[in-house]
Write a structure and sequence with these properties.
The protein is of the alpha/beta class. The protein folds into 3 domains: about 180 residues, D-Maltodextrin-Binding Protein, domain 2 (3-Layer(aba) Sandwich); about 230 residues, D-Maltodextrin-Binding Protein, domain 2, CATH 3.40.190.290; about 60 residues, no CATH class. Helix content is about 40%, strand content about 20%. It is built from 16 helices and 23 strands. Strands 9, 13, 14, 15, 16, 17, 18, 19 and 20 form a 9-stranded mixed beta sheet that branches.
């Protein structure tokens, strides 16, 4: 199919599409206004928009408070619509290019402007202003990018566009991006995951709702918390940023000092979603849940000196700390009604009271317990037992928005094991006193056992071989000595008289056998001793029982 390209500013291209002068806009982001007449292909890219300001201005960081500020935006762009809809107290000032916004910033006509990092950095390089402009830490707008076309032509063209984009492999996308964007930090395809494939109705819903309000616990490290600078930190935040990138949307984070009050907002549907929440029957009445994507074991912590607690059943009658709004309390209250639960404002307070003896124990997820114990340098607490369940965390969304539930479910499905490893390794340090056998341990034990069996076998075999060799050497030694003895005796019988030869024979034989006496005994014509030798050298006739007797007629004198 032949394709003719037409270049122009965003506003002109959108007008040309509406007037039918072009069939497709190659790169456009969805907005509420555009969704009324424009269809968008499956997103093939994502953009991140930030607020830029001069560091030497009176504004330390305008991103934290934009009310009354003059913000530069590109005319007819999605950031312009975002400012008008979501920042009604700010004043958007339209410009045609990023270079114009930079000039207005330095001339004082605007307080800050919205732009994509790669485009802004390129413009600053051309103006020689690198390092003269900062980006806000408090503002981060994500946008999905796809091809746009008129709704009345989407039935024919949209499937062709989606098939074409789908035919491009991730490696090909990555190679194209690497060619044009130098900094890996600004690349969309720096992660292994890809954009989420959504239906037409789901993409239209996102176009109408590019900002999703999410309830987040502000005091639950290492999952989510606000640091001393007022910045969100934690594993939950890392997951939310990943989903923002995949969906091309922006999560607006909400918090409440008391988590139970925060959950009331979810019950009233004052927020669109809740991050990292456990599913219960009660919560399922007003929230939809994705499949769990983070699982952490629940454990019982007690003092090292307390030997009375070794299982959940030992908590009956004990003072056990809990934090309201978490499933821990709900599960234990049902299964162990004899426990004296004591409400704690947060996990850190509960652990301190267990350490000081005010509480007997606390049931908590192992990740938070490990983090707080390490942070507070508590040394007298230990994991004494498993609680019998895991904290399975999901994304939850208000149940009156099925499109949002489906979108979040599809986004969670794109999270790979590699994504989990990268996100969780920086935050989860699960340490405890519970021994938990795993496959690697069993493999190690089998290897050790096989090694020990081989060592025992070879040692046994070597011992037998050595014993056999020593036995053979002893036999050879005895045989050699007998050969020498018989040879010596034979020479005496050939060279000496018979009686002297017999005496020599008896002496050698007695010494060889370590006998006290040796004699040659004859029975004919009557019993008598023919020859006798004694080691005492005194010729005393001994009882026959003390004499090695030999009946050797061949040696008798004739």
């Amino acid at each position: 199919m032949p394709i003719k390209f037409r270049m122009g500013p965003v506003g002109e291209n959108i007008d040309a599409l509406q007037e039918g002068k072009v069939d497709v806009i190659a790169a456009v982001s969805p907005t509420m206004e555009r969704s009324q007449w424009m269809a968008l292909s499956n997103p093939y890219y994502g953009l991140n928009t930030r607020i830029y300001f001069r560091p030497d201005s009176n504004l330390s960081d305008p991103g934290s408070e934009l009310s009354g500020k003059k913000l530069g935006v590109i005319g007819s762009s999605s950031p312009e619509e975002f400012v008008r809809r979501w920042l009604p107290d700010a004043y958007p000032i339209e410009h045609d290019t990023v270079s114009e916004m930079i000039e207005s910033l330095f001339s004082g006509e605007i307080d800050a402007f919205l732009g994509e990092p790669v485009i802004v950095q390129s413009a600053l390089n051309r103006h020689g202003l690198v390092g003269e402009v900062n980006s806000s830490e408090y503002f981060n707008l994500n946008e999905a990018v796809g091809a746009g076309l008129l709704l009345n032509r989407s039935a024919d063209l949209l499937p062709e566009l989606n098939n074409g984009f789908r035919a491009i492999t991730p490696d090909e996308y990555r190679a194209i991006e690497n060619r044009w964007i130098i900094s890996s930090r600004d690349r969309y395809f720096r992660h292994s995951g890809s954009a989420v494939e959504l239906s037409d109705s789901e993409r239209r819903w996102l176009g109408e709702n590019p900002v999703i309000s999410v309830l987040v616990d502000n005091n639950k490290p290492p999952f989510s918390y606000v640091d001393r600078r007022g910045q969100w930190q934690g594993m939950t935040i890392a997951y939310l940023k990943l989903l923002e990138d995949r969906l091309g949307i922006t999560f607006q984070l909400h918090q409440d000092p008391v988590w139970t009050n925060a959950l009331i907002q979810a019950y009233r549907h004052d927020v669109d979603a809740v991050a990292m929440l456990q599913k219960t029957e009660e919560r399922s009445r007003y929230l939809n849940f994705t499949k769990p994507f983070v699982s952490v074991p629940a454990v019982i912590l007690a003092r090292v000196s307390d030997k009375s607690i070794r299982s959940p059943g030992h908590l009956n009658g004990k003072r056990v700390g809990f934090t309201p709004g978490y499933v821990t309390y709900e599960i234990f209250q049902q299964n162990y009604p004899g426990i004296n639960f004591v409400k704690m404002p947060d996990i850190a307070t509960g652990l301190n009271q267990v350490a000081s003896g005010v509480l007997d124990a606390m049931v908590v997820n192992l990740a938070s317990a490990s983090y707080e114990i390490e942070r507070m340098k508590i040394t007298n607490l230990q994991v004494v037992a498993e609680a019998g369940f895991n904290y399975d965390f999901s994304m939850a969304s208000r149940n009156n928005s099925p499109e949002l539930a489906s979108i979040l479910e599809k986004a969670v499905d794109t999270i790979t094991p590699e994504d989990r490893e990268a996100l969780e390794s920086s935050w989860l340090s699960i340490q405890g006193g519970m021994w938990r056998p795993n496959k690697e341990l069993f493999i190690g034990l089998v290897l050790i056992l096989v090694t020990l069996i081989l060592i025992v076998y070879w040692n046994r075999r070597l011992t037998i071989e050595i014993a056999d060799r020593e036995k053979a050497e002893e036999g050879l030694r005895i045989r050699s000595e007998l050969d020498r003895l018989l040879s010596d005796i034979s020479r005496h019988f050939m060279d000496q008289p018979v009686h002297r030869a017999n005496d020599y024979f008896l002496s050698r034989l007695g010494l060889h056998l370590n006998a006290e006496a040796v004699c040659i005994f004859s029975w004919e014509p009557r019993a008598r001793i023919e020859h006798y030798w004694s080691s005492s050298l005194i010729l005393i006739l001994r009882p026959l029982s003390h004499c090695l007797t030999m009946t050797l007629p061949v040696f008798m004198a004739r």
